[in-house]
Fold these 2 entries.
Entry 1:
Amino acid sequence: MPSEFELIARYFKRSASCAILGPGDDCALLSPSQGMALAVTTDMLISGVHFFPDTDPWQLGWKALAVNLSDLAAMGAQPRWALLAASLPCANETWISSFSAGLFACAHQYGVDLIGGDTTRGPMNLCITAAGELPVDQALCRGKAKAGDDVWISGQTGLAGLGLAHLQNRTQLFEPLLSRCLLALHKPIPRIELGLALQRHQLARAAIDISDGLLADIGHIAVCSSIDVEIFLANLPPLPDECEPALARICQLSGGDDYELAFCAPPSKRLYLIELAESLQLPLWRIGNTVTKKEVHKSEVRLIGEDGRPVPITQKGFDHFA
Ligand code: ADP
Ligand code: MG
């Protein structure tokens, strides 16, 4: 049985190219680029809450980092560093080596150094802290949207939710949709290039990554920016047609685990965003717009049907304590 320190040395210690000092000492040493602010975020993945205990460890390693990078993307930050606090029930080296390979595959793809962490024995819990850089005033904060902005989303929401529904026997999916949904659930792609382009070319004012459900997360932008949002059903990406349409719609609006970006941009940026979608090979959908608040004391997301009337919203998204 390997010791804690053997595990760290074998599976988590790699040279860090963009840190002064990587893992191995009491602290890592970082040197942020001149004039840049650090964007820092942390996300936990708990067995039985965020993933099934028998989830493929490679994909889990990928996802544990990817969900953090998604937060950096939503701010418009360039990812740089990550720390891993791992609580593992046992030193199963087959599992750990596969987890480590998935984590480093994601780190390598997005230019992130694992600069340290903590490794303990306990119930399976994987907590990553990630940091990136961006010019101080350029962050795509949730509170920067203005009434009259367009609301956009990247890619397609709802696939991960459908994959989860399949695994929980709430529906049955068939190939090729099944593989697409399971990949979306287990190996999310953080929209780093999109977040960076929005920030660098000042194409968006506010952004959020969709982790808890489209309506819930756009609701956070609405509250922080003190505006209402109107989303038009007719403008949403088409639902996959090889599944139950009602469930597909619920997953699209409130499924969670999507890690696409939702952002608010002035209408003057439309042509640039269409070009950006082309150059990133990533569909961008203009699904609605922001409006002045109807009520002073609350911000609202309204879903508008094809007939122009509001559609009642039953379920906004996931809440651990709801
Ligand atoms: P300390 O007791 O000083 O907190 P540890 O013994 O916990 O240090 O860790 C030793 C070194 O290994 C530290 O530099 C720490 O950042 C690094 N480390 C521990 N666990 C991990 C991990 N899961 N991933 C990356 N680095 C790790
Ligand atoms: Mg420690």
Entry 2:
Amino acid sequence: MVAICSECEAPLAADRPCACGGLPEFRLRSPRMSPHGYKNTLKHRRVSSDPRFRSGVWRYIELLPPIQDSEIVSMAEGNVPLYESAGRGEDFAEVRKLAYLHLGMNPTGSFKDLGMTVAVSAAKASGMRSVACASTGNTAASMAAYAARGGLRSYALVPRNGISREKLAQIRDYGAEVVEVQGSFDDAFARLAELDAVAIVNSVNPYRIEGQKCAAFAMLEARGWCVPDWVVLPGGNLGNVSAIGKGLLEAHALGLIGRLPRIAVIQASGAAPFVHAWEHQVDLVPCVAQTMASAIAIGNPKSWRRARRILKACNGTAISVSDAEIDRAKGVIGLEGIGCEPASASSLAGLRELVRRGIVDGKADVVTILTGHVLKDGAASVRVADLRDVQKARGSHACAI
Ligand code: F0G
């Protein structure tokens, strides 16, 4: 299938960037059904016994690049809960209506599975025998699992000190070859160029974006196609905001929704090159990333142009939050009985800050995206629980965690 450049729209091979700096992206296919007819079809698929439709990605098959059924590697990904706040999150952020789309409730515990089912299936269909990625952990865990299911070899390049023990163990459990690279995610990504005859399954791969965009459809379906005012999500390499934004724009273009939600991207303040570029309306200047939220410790995000285009299209914004604020938000999500890894909690921390600044109205209806499972980073959970104990011992009511 031919892709186009996300920026200048020139036709492009799916596996390389454009001379203008844009990334390959697929054009929307149409379901050839009325919006009402398509919504009904989707409803029936939810209870269908067709194995493809047990996946919350392949259920939207008309909106995906064509891949032969026999090549599809799927694990019922994408069927994740939309949890309404039980009150603590709403109180913490001072917002009227808050729900969490928990993409950590996927087969390998992160949102990456939605994209990986499509990327690995496409690699398999094109005859590739191996896949590879650079990763702070979740992409690699997802790649390793789907590659194993599809009978492909996988190679994970990870930053030596920038990945949780749990993620490293998980990647190895699924049988990937792990190469620990000295330096950061950005250094690991640069090393990918040394690999030959492998399909790169980072989010520069347009098949990943096609799968991940389905999170937007799933969120809308779970809400009866009622559009929230804001969608708030963490940003690292900025593939996910590009994907979810693409899904929302497509849902709008197809008439499945009548308006767009606004999107807010939240970065950790020690890894916020996109926020800087957004605020100053300049091109992205890479930085050396430093944050305890290791999943989003990325200083040179590859999808920043796409993310900027999405935010402009939906009147969105980007802000950063400190590691301390991320930890507090993680504590609140824990006390909601939900839990998540630190990078995910940046979305709630960011929402609180957006309300404080008056950018999000306190009366708004908000969906925050939780990207990774609480079990992905045990050390972070211990740190946050210890912090809570210290506050309890001091009798402090200043912090809601
Ligand atoms: N949240 C989690 C839990 C992540 O693992 C990532 C990215 C993000 C948010 C940010 O998403 O990069 O699409 O903006 N993790 C990548 C990885 C980098 O290698 O697992 P993004």
